[in-house]
């Protein structure tokens, strides 16, 4: 892997009202350890280091990724540059060492146990942004957020976040403690947050972190058939990558590729630029696994600054809300969303 001479001046954005400032583009680290084929730690650490050099200093992980190995990977990568990064991690989804999912836990005692375990794996004293990964419907959100707030008081966490929470939950949580960010899937093929979630975040002063902003890589145009994915890739089981859905979604991506060609950029850059141009309170965290993809995505910030209102309307018309074929997750996963 060869490092290019590319440099960037990364735009900064503020998440929430407590002053958490991060770059407009962060780095999703999940795929470095699991779900998207076999990872390579040496390549991943080099990519994280290059991201930091480019100003992409907002790193996103979770306790269950690996399981349990992605936080260690991130911790190793930042060990000699902790002061330069903002570390976000998550708790709530439970897995055992074999990777089996054990359910969702938002109980106050578990919140504290999970935080201590993440701090140890990351090798840091304080988590900059701590998310509840999925909402536990058996535990009042007030209890979970209350316990998370105690972590802030104890100095173990700086800011709180939620992931894939519903409007009522977000509003109730914000009455217990300041919420810096909501992390939810958002991209050209997942525009659901536009209906209720994004307006509520604006109302409450909560930042929005868009995960899978490239549609799990589909919007890059690099996948032409299911066989382009590794045999152990989680996306082979994703409804949007299945059968007729794949072909229908590929036809939509062709529109993005055509417009990107006119803009002299890549489809990935255009898809990211569209998100960044939508709202200055949105931060995107594409999951770049290599330096070349990282640098490609970093240039999306420049593309966003050139998108006109007319081009935004054209993109909206070519890829309207609800256009993607298939659900985001299989049935079990869908039940954990928007709670």
Summed up:
The protein is an alpha/beta fold and 339 residues long.
Descriptive report:
This protein is an alpha/beta fold. It has twelve helices and twelve strands. The strands form three sheets. Strands 3-4-5-8-9-10-11-12 form an eight-stranded parallel β-sheet, with helices on one face. Strands 1-2 form a two-stranded antiparallel sheet. A two-stranded antiparallel sheet has the order 6-7. Strand 9 (157-163), helix 5 (167-176) and strand 10 form a beta-alpha-beta unit. Helix 3 (108-122) packs across helix 4 (141-153) and helix 7 packs across helix 8. The longest helix has 20 residues, at 243-262. It is globular, with a radius of gyration of 19 Å. The mean pLDDT is 95.
What structural class should be given to the helix and strand makeup? Answer: alpha/beta
Which whole number gives the mean pLDDT?
95
Instruction: Give unreliable regions as ranges.
Output: none
Written as H for each helix and E for each strand, in order along the chain, the element string is EEEHEHEEEHEHEHEHEHHEHHHH
Tally of helical segments? 12
Choose one word for the global shape. globular
Rounded radius of gyration (Å): 19 Å
Question: Main sheet?
Answer: 8 strands, parallel
Task: Specify the helix fraction band.
Answer: 25-40%
């Amino acid at each position: 892997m060869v490092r290019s001479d590319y440099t960037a001046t990364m735009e900064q954005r503020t998440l929430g009202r407590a002053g958490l400032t991060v770059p407009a583009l962060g780095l999703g680290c999940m795929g470095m350890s699991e779900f998207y084929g076999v990872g390579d730690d040496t390549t991943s650490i080099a990519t994280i280091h290059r991201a930091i050099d480019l100003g992409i200093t907002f790193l996103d992980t979770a306790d269950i990724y690996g399981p349990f190995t992605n936080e260690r990977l991130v911790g190793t990568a930042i060990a000699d540059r902790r002061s330069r990064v903002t570390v976000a991690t998550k708790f709530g989804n439970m897995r055992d060492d074999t990777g089996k999912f054990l359910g969702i836990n938002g109980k106050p005692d578990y919140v504290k146990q999970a935080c201590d375990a993440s701090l140890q794996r990351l090798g840091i004293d304080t988590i900059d942004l701590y998310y509840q990964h999925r909402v536990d419907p058996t535990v009042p959100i007030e209890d979970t957020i209350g316990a998370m707030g105690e972590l802030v008081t104890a100095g173990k966490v700086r800011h709180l976040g939620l992931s894939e929470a519903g409007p009522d939950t977000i509003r109730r949580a914000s009455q217990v403690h300041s919420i810096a960010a909501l992390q939810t899937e958002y991209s050209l093929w997942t525009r659901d947050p536009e209906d209720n979630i994004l307006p509520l975040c604006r109302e409450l002063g909560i930042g929005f972190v868009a995960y899978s902003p490239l549609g799990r890589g589909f919007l890059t145009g690099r996948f032409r058939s299911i066989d382009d994915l590794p045999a152990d890739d989680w996306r082979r089981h994703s409804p949007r990558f299945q059968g007729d859905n794949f072909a229908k979604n590929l036809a939509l991506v062709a529109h993005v590729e055509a417009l990107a060609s006119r803009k002299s950029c890549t489809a990935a850059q255009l898809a990211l630029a569209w998100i960044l141009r939508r709202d200055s309170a949105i931060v995107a965290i594409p999951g770049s696994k290599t330096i070349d993809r990282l640098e490609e995505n970093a240039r999306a910030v420049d593309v966003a600054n050139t998108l006109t209102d007319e081009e935004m309307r054209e993109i909206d018309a070519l890829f309207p809300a609800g256009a993607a074929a298939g659900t985001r997750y299989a049935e079990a996963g869908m039940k954990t969303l928007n709670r």
